[in-house]
Amino acid sequence: MSQNDPVVRLPLPTDGPLDPPPEWANLRARCPVATVELPSGDTGTLLTRYDHVRALLSDPRFARPTPEDDSARIAPDDAGGVSTSNSSSLSLPTKGEGHQRWRRHVGRYFTAKRVTALRPGMTRTAETLVAAMVAGGPPADLKAALGFPLPVYVICDLLGAPVEDRDRFSYWSDAFLNVDRYTREETGAAHADFLTYMAELVSAKRAEPGEDIISTLIEESREEGEGGLTDPELRDTGMALLVAGHETTANMIGKMVATLLADRRRWERLLADPALVRTAVDEVLRTDANLGGYGVRRYLTEDFEVDGTVVPGGTTVFCGLSAANRDERAFADPDELDLTRSPNPHLAFGAGAHSCLGQSLARTELQVTLEVLLRTLPGLELAVPVEELRKVEGLTVGGLREVPVRW
After folding, report:
1. pLDDT tens profile 44-55
2. Could you give the angle at which helices 231-262 and 213-224 cross, rounded to 10 degrees?
3. What values do phi and psi take at 337, rounded to 5?
4. Are 249 and 156 in contact (CB under 8 A)?
5. Under-50 pLDDT residues of the chain
6. Is the pTM above the cut of 0.85?
7. How far is the CA of 307 from the CAs of 6, 179, 310, 317, in angstroms?
8. How far, in Å, CA of 8 to CA of 42, rounded?
9. Which of 236, 267, 350, 377 could form a disulfide with 90 if both were Cys (CB 3.0 to 4.6 A apart)?
10. What is the distance between the alpha carbons of residues 322 and 308, in angstroms, rounded to a whole number?
11. CA 98 from centroid of its chain's CA atoms
């Protein structure tokens, strides 16, 4: 960075709802360590090259901002969402041995083997949801009919939470992840309600254990004593898994289907060779231009050097996952969606000690969605031109408001 470099204002504009910002390529080429200004007026640093983003995400010294950090705010003080405060207000440890202890406890429930065991149930749920959508006749909003409810059913089953509360979960998630839709007061009230709800769910599981993650973690914590998770950690684990387990995947299902239908040749290729579903899912994840308009945040507790540029401690760095996933230094023909691309070391789920715990679950839900749609609705197509799709503005995880389809 130098004083002559321009200040980039986030989020960057795009030409279409599924298109990447044209500025990404310029930043990677000319200013890969850029100064950015946020809607709050605060500034930070944006990384857009693959190696730079991966190196910072993999560095165990740095994590998401905590309430004690003087980190850059995304939203103005009078707005709500995760970005008004300096960090998540959950009590889960974000780095060091405490974070690794938490990941060891929770991560064992999201192994590929455990998730594979869930696949038949996911498939039946997806088939039921698609059948209901078909019964309603075209056109339909695939996000509302399938994209949102499928991950909700899955995560509620895992947590032992009543699926009937899905509208409450959706509101709470949106309040945390949307930068400008809610006021600080609305977000605070949503957070308080969610805390109460999850604390009561933990108490209920302690009184009457089930086969869910929360019940199992309670039993393990009882057996391990001081080495187990505390009640606040159990509560906040449930909150974190519920938000991450349905909001991001629900949006990704809609974006995946829209991306594949935007060019009919992609859909026809998958119909001809369904074995490509696995690589297709990862390629859609790599090329997703809407993983979030702000990237993943890291707060530097000390200086960090990026290709000779020293980013000083105290800086909030925004790791542009989507920009890095299109870096020509890491991927051949990065702007081409190659359904056969393998290996595909994209950063959609992050990297290092803070990579997404639920990535096997998310991949499986996306694969199941695609398999069911290809098998039951081979004639599926978008019901509107691609350019008429509308993005959810202000949502840090990115998404489309609706995905109108017909068949």
Report:
1. 999 999 999 999
2. 150
3. -85, 105
4. no
5. 3, 82-88
6. yes
7. 19, 32, 8, 15
8. 12
9. 236
10. 23
11. 23
- Residue 68 is predicted with a pLDDT of 85
Query: Rounded to whole angstroms, how far apart are CA atoms 203 and 194?
Result: 14
Superfamily of 8-406 according to CATH: Cytochrome P450 (1.10.630.10)
Give the H or E element holding residue 316: strand 316-319
Reference 241, options 198, 184, 186; nearest CA is 198
- What amino acid is encoded at 405 in this protein? V
Query: Using CA atoms, how far apart are residues 268 and 212, in angstroms rounded to an integer?
Result: 39
352: DSSP letter: G
Q: Which of 228, 257, 250, 235 is nearest to 166 (CA)?
A: 250
End-to-end CA distance of the chain: 51
The label of the residue with tokens 């290996």 reads 343
How far is residue 172's CA from residue 178's CA, in Å, rounded to a whole number?
10
Omega prior to 93 cis, within 30 of 0:
no
Q: Which amino acid is at 90?
A: L
- C-alpha 119/C-alpha 184 separation (Å) is 39
Say what the pLDDT of residue 87 is. 37
Non-local (6+) Cβ contacts of 216 within 8 A are: 109
pLDDT of residue 130: 98
**149, 167 contact by CB (below 8 A):** no
* C-alpha to C-alpha distance for 90 and 92, rounded to whole angstroms: 6
Q: Name the β-bridge partners of 37.
A: 9, 43
Quick one: residue 162, left, alpha or beta (phi over 0 = left, psi -120 to 50 = alpha)? Answer: beta
- DSSP codes of every residue in 253-281: HHHHHHHHHHSHHHHHHHHH-GGGHHHHH
> Of 290, 383, 280, which Cα lies nearest the Cα of 337?
280
In this prediction, residue 184 carries a pLDDT of 81
Strand partners, 404: 141
Q: Quick one: pLDDT at residue 75?
A: 79
Q: The tokens of 297 are what?
A: 């945040």
